[in-house]
Amino acid sequence: MSSELTFRGHETQQVNDEYSPKPNKPWLSEIRPIRYMLREQRLVFVLIGIVIATLFFTLAPSSSSTSSSSSSFPTVRYEPHPISYFEHESKPTPYQQRSAVVHSFGKVPLGLKRKGLRIVVTGGAGFVGSHLVDRLIERGDSVIVVDNFFTGRKENVMHHFRNPRFELIRHDVVEPLLLEVDQIYHLACPASPVHYKFNPTNVVGTLNMLGLAKRIGARFLLTSTSEVYGDPLQHPQKETYWGNVNPIGVRSCYDEGKRTAETLTMDYHRGAEVEVRIARIFNTYGPRMCLDDGRVVSNFVAQALRKEPLTVYGDGKQTRSFQYVSDLVEGLMRLMEGEHVGPFNLGNPGEFTMLELAKVVQETIDPEAKIEYRPNTEDDPHKRKPDITKAKEQLGWEPKVDLHTGLPLMVSDFRQRIFGDHKEGGTVA
Ligand SMILES: NC(=O)c1ccc[n+]([C@@H]2O[C@H](COP(=O)([O-])OP(=O)(O)OC[C@H]3O[C@@H](n4cnc5c(N)ncnc54)[C@H](O)[C@@H]3O)[C@@H](O)[C@H]2O)c1
């Protein structure tokens, strides 16, 4: 049997409880939030909160700190360079239009942090690239390293692996690649003399990266080289000098490859409105250089540490200038953020003969180290020294670290990699 509950009371109840709304008071709903704020000293707490937030954002250090991240870098401070992509140009390029939408570089209100960029560094696992990556990450940018590990090493960037703003792609830039970024630092290149031959990276790789920059409206920076001056007939070398390069010599694949890369870069700039920057890098040294890639500073340091004689080619009177890597990275970043295309010489004008360099290495590592002379290599330039007037004037840049300061930092890193110990090779004030 189903049970049926029936309430019967309503049959006798008076139906006199009709809903009658209270008289409408519109002013009451408007002052309710004000009354709420005035109660229990809420307004006082809100005001205190505003004061604390203002103090915090005003006193907090800017995200665009330019100090070096690596303990191997001497403490060198550079004046911040104004970021201004829009001056002196009438028609905005695709990069400027894109930047205006995605990032407002113009005026960042006091206390607000600059929005991080998305940046590709090709060759970012190499010597220079990995130091550049350190600085970009430190500045707050998101970085994608594209590297085929031809001469680069994972160890150079491993300390970023847990950082969500860091990505590493194993890729050969002679194959096309599609990525969405704001800037491309194109460093990928077998840079040392022993890897010069048969390599299409400078031409095909540069073409691919320029194509990418055009497609996505990114700014593109090429790391060219002082080798474009060949065996120079002008000394020191200015950017206006066209060079003296042997097109069919043993070094030509590198020299002419970079010259072609510069040509392609300027063609994309003029013909396809790609925003480009060109750096001509002079000899650079520092921690994370390849141990045995045939470059003179790494050669001497590794030989002295291993108690082998220092190999000097020719009479040792040929000159070079040596730039510490943190100076170069600062120059590259200023160039990328600045408003000048270049090319710019980035190097240290301090000039040393090979024998003088050998002497500094002996003083730093082993005064007993012997020197061994060998016949000079073909097409070895007799003199190299950058004229950096243009970079000083237009980028506000000049190197700060001299050889006697920078070399011990490199020695310390080499010592650790060769012997696996942690002894300091020298200290820097
Ligand atoms: N260090 C110097 O003294 C110096 C001087 C002049 C110019 N440069 C230029 O600076 C850039 C960096 O040089 P570095 O000294 O760091 O050399 P590096 O050899 O340490 O770094 C080059 C990086 O590019 C990578 N790479 C090479 N070919 C590649 C390819 N096809 N695809 C992807 N990745 C590739 C290598 O694996 C390596 O990680 C180079 O373009 C070089 O020509 C350097």
Automatic annotation (TrEMBL):
It is a single-pass type II membrane protein. InterPro entries: NAD(P)-bd_dom (IPR016040), NAD(P)-bd_dom_sf (IPR036291), UXS-like (IPR044516). Its EC number is 4.1.1.35. It is found in: Golgi apparatus, Golgi stack membrane. The keyword Signal does not apply. It holds the Pfam family GDP_Man_Dehyd. Residues 121-408 form the NAD(P)-binding domain. One of its GO terms (molecular function) is UDP-glucuronate decarboxylase activity. Belongs to the NAD(P)-dependent epimerase/dehydratase family. UDP-glucuronic acid decarboxylase subfamily. PANTHER family: UDP-GLUCURONATE DECARBOXYLASE (PTHR43078:SF48), UDP-GLUCURONIC ACID DECARBOXYLASE-RELATED (PTHR43078). This is UDP-glucuronate decarboxylase. It comes from Pisum sativum. The lineage of its organism: Eukaryota, Viridiplantae, Streptophyta, Embryophyta, Tracheophyta.
